[in-house]
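#structure-requests
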Amino acid sequence: MRIGLFGGSFDPPHRGHIALARLAIERMALDRVLLAPVGLQPLKRDRPQSSFTDRVAMTRLAIEGEPGLEVSLVDAPHADGRPNYTIDAVRSLGATLTAGDRLFCVMGADSFLSIGKWYRTTELLVACDFVVASRPGFDLGRIAGALPSSISVAACDAEEGDILVLCMHGGGRRESRLYLLPDLKELASASGIRESLQHGRIAQTELQPAVAAYIQEHGLYEGGGDS
């Protein structure tokens, strides 16, 4: 099977998240994409405004009726409160797969631009293939510029779109592929949605109705604060 791992805060999950996951499925012929709410992201100064339990519940509602999309708890909070690292989630999920399975790490281009700051970046970049989706007009050269110096880049041909082959310097000839999908049309911002909700405005066009109803029912994102 071809499986995508799409991690994030999902605080809240919105139509942009679903559009990205669907684009990955359609362009990369993935059998399924696992949306994995993260317990605690190490690069974000503030904790998510809603609990992990609420974010999982909202993500389940957001993907209801969406074929090929599932929720995964592979990046659930640690009992000792330490941060969650993507490399650990990839390793944990990879250990459950069979030899014939292929794992892709799915994310938006804006998230990938910070990849050089991620924990054990070089190891992560060759642990699985990557699918990075961007808005039309995004400068794809910024993707290569975001890579750490320990990763070399070479272009290769493929039918799925623009592809870069990532090769780790030294320590063997491990490599992975980075698939660039430059046609993500759906735009949404979780921080913008939270700001609207904090001012009593429901972002109906950006949230699935079931997610908007859950937020209202549980009084999420009311009051101040941002992240």
